[in-house]
Give the backbone structure.
Amino acid sequence: MANGGATGGRSAGTRERLLAAAGTAFAERGFHATTTRDIAAAAGMSPAAVYVHHESKEELLYLISLEGHTRTREIVREAIANADDPAGQLRAVMAAFTTFHAEQHTLARVVNYELVSLNPPHRKEIAALRRAIRRDVQSVVEAGMATGVFDTANAKLTTMALLSLGIDIGRWYGVDATWPPQTIASLYADLALRMVSANLEEKP
């Protein structure tokens, strides 16, 4: 049992190394330009090691995408739960969302810009997660509109615009700019409230 556990631990560690190497390679070269040899070399392994632990290069992309989107939804839900009103929730969501995309910009670049490379079943699963994230944020926008705190004509389109701000950080962060994530988070949280024309004055 002890040996089996040790072997299982080593296998899990190897899979994680391959996932990390694949994520970096996909971010730098793109999915189609990256070979399994590139991934194995970055992980310090032989090319055969990729297929020992993963069925394909596409499976690596899927697992990276699943991890990234699952973590994103958890971050969004936690931010919403930690504030009591729509304005506070939207500020918290945008701060957390943009911080994550800046701190994990390599991961964000892959999970947001390589979706078309997933096979149809995997793409469908990730698309469902993306819709769930959008619905979580849209519920905050709709709550603000219902209480008169937010003034925007289209909750869904506004939500897409808000999320796009954060998603795009993965494209340029670390390449064109390296502002501290906290600086970006603070600015984007303010921008989010401006985008919904938030009325933060207390109503009589």
Observations:
- DSSP finds ten helices and no strands in the chain.
- The two ends are 68 Å apart (CA to CA).
- The chain has a mean pLDDT of 90.
- The chain has two domains: 1-54, 56-204.
